[in-house]
Design goal:
Layout lengths: L2 H9 L3 H8 L6 H10 L4 H13 L12 H11 L7 H7 L5 H7 L5 H9 L5 H7 L4 H4 L10 H7 L5 H8 L6 H7 L5 H12 L3
Helix pairs in contact: 2-4, 3-4, 4-6, 5-6, 6-8, 12-14, 13-14
């Protein structure tokens, strides 16, 4: 979309057009920034900018969309009081700087903390603190490559199948933990653990 369309929409405060533009993850990040700068106090637009950043970030091709502008926006949205909901998009983004993740790890909203717990960029010392948090937060730890092995060992016996499933699929988990899960009483978990071991040398 051309810059003049965006500039016109910003000048006209045409939020409908801007929201539509933000639904396109190929919108240049510079344009996303100019929309955000102009509507920092508009809850709907802040949420949509956060969503745009989320859409353009692939967990599998993490470096692809990395840019200093994206990081700048993530930092700003994390402390923007207008839309608390936008923080979840920042919490799950692998490009979110560690200091922002540390800040969000104490967020009053459990979903935000849960997404920080599952974020592969969250450092292990923050993840350790989550172990005593509520279940929705703790559940994110089993699939995180940075979760310390001693915690994964405990999660190996978790009653929740999905926790064990994420652990069985965690390629950073120690081989001995995955081996234990090959004998899990749930066939899906044992199958995932066997598949995980199969990818290792």
């Amino acid at each position: 979309m051309h810059t003049e369309t965006i500039n016109h929409a910003i000048m006209q405060s045409d939020t409908t057009v801007l929201i539509e533009l933000l639904e396109d993850k190929s919108l240049p990040i510079e344009e996303v920034k100019s929309i955000y700068e102009a509507f920092k106090s508009d809850k709907l637009l802040v949420g949509q900018v956060a969503m745009n950043l989320s859409l353009r970030t692939s967990v599998y091709e993490r470096e692809k969309e990395y840019s200093p502008i994206m990081v700048e926006l993530l930092i700003d949205i994390a402390s923007n009081p207008v839309d608390m909901g936008a923080r979840w998009a920042v919490a799950k983004n692998p490009h979110t700087p560690i200091e922002v993740l540390r800040h969000l790890s104490t967020d009053p909203i459990n979903l935000v903390r849960a997404l920080v717990a599952a974020n592969p960029s969250t450092p292990s010392d923050v993840l350790e603190k989550f172990f005593s948090d509520e279940k929705i937060v703790r559940d994110g730890l089993s699939g995180n490559p940075n979760t310390p092995a001693k915690l994964l060992k405990i999660l190996c016996d978790d009653n929740d199948k999905m926790v064990r499933m994420r652990l069985a699929e965690n390629h950073a988990a120690p081989k001995e933990i995955i081996t234990v899960l090959t004998n899990d009483n749930d066939p899906d978990v044992s199958k995932a653990a066997l598949a995980n071991l199969g990818t290792r040398g």
